[in-house]
Amino acid sequence: MAEIRTEEMLINMGPQHPSTHGVLRLKLALSGEIVDDVKPYIGYLHRCFEKHCEAMTYSQIIPYTDRMDYLNSINNEHAYALAVEKLCGIELPERVEYIRVIMAELQRIASHLVAIGTYGNDAGAFTPFLYCFIDREKVLELFEMVCGARLLYNYIWIGGLSHDITPDFIRKTKEFITYMRPRITQINGLLTYNKIFIERTINIGMLPVDVAINSGASGPTLRGSGYKYDLRKHDTYSIYNKVDFDVCVGTGEYGTIGDCWNRYIVRVDEMEQSLRIIEQLIDNIPEGDVQSAVPKRVKPPVGEVYVRTESPKGELAYYIISDGGIKPFRVKARSPSFCNVSLLEKISKGHMIADVVMILGSFDIVLGCIDR
Amino acid sequence: METAEIYEKLKKTFTEGIGELKTNLPVYPFFFVDADKVNAICCFLRDEESLQFDNLSCLSGVDYDIDNLAVVYHLYSYTLNHQLVIKTTVPKTNPVVRTVSDVWVAAEWHEREAFDLIGVNFEGHPDLRRILLPEDWEGHPLRKDYKVPDFYNGMKVPY
Description:
The complex is a heterodimer of chains A (372) and B (159). Chain A has 372 residues and is of the alpha+beta class.
């Protein structure tokens, strides 16, 4: 038989693709089915967030921060509001802090449900996707009850909140907690411990801890490699120091620590921890006025601030430079997905294309955050 | 460790190239370093036993004033739990800074973004090209004197 000529093939996994979680273009260099090199191209969703910020006042920027990571709006607003409040030196009423943390944890559950559902979808499991979205509907109903919006809230204002919560919301949140716990067990039964899913995700995309730290990976990506670090515990902000919760790491129950399955199990475990946090706070919200500390005009002193928070995707940070006016001089958003996607080149060598899809899903990226 | 202690330690090792520690403005103190010493200083910050800055949290380009661009490094140490802010300025006529992507791999994409939006050239970067904007875009949008071009590849850029 004559020698079969082989050469490297370049395939484009284009910006429009159901498995790239948004408009992400991957240029794959393949020999056969095995990937030699992956080059991500981003920028298809660039909306010039940082340039817009220089033309608007500090309070007007809040709806724009919503739209960066659109599955996770409360955490974006929370980080930005914390940064401006730190710069201005605004003291918040306790009620505001409690409600902010409850909302942030509800948003974390909603964001992880999307991550888990779409990850199963990438692997070919269509049912868990719809189950996760049914549960997410309950969370979005809770948000709609408070501020009228399901996805992009404009809820956390600088110095307070836009609307106060009602006793009805507290009752419905407690019902949600009792509803959600058995649903997590159901997701585990459907997807997490499913033999096919385990075979698809173990020992794929190994990420050693030192590479992860050096590359700026954070959140479940870093914790899946076994490193116990959570900004809510180790560099605490707001009232997270008053609640009791565990930091979830990849356990190595299946596969090896640092592979896709362990990054995924961190997210499932974090949902349970979020429920714990909400449970501890929901009955003890102090009385107060959520709008009492909202300033008429936000005019920070000359200076700059850098605040890091734990969003469901990782370390979300804002760097704000103020020149003393009502509009910021420079706002830089350090997004977790931006740093996580740069890891894709390094850990997908030697895998097959289907595995690249699973590795990308395990990072849980949102293109709005990457491109801003 | 506090920023003042880290600053003293750096001053002992690198006698020149480090500006003075600015503590009067909110919120964190910072200091300037010379653009050509950045890589050496960052290597020292990462490898020194008592400092161990193993994580580059954020690298931002800033249009500092009329004549200068600045690059701001936010460093964090996971092992020792302290953070540091250092800055470097370069003139707009020759904005060249030595890269730190060989110290922290995270810098690769951050420096590409700073090059794309502000126009700082990182010397020694393995793959310096635009990341968020199209490859053939002209100009650096985050500069204060940026004018939106009228046409891009024959298409009218709407106002």
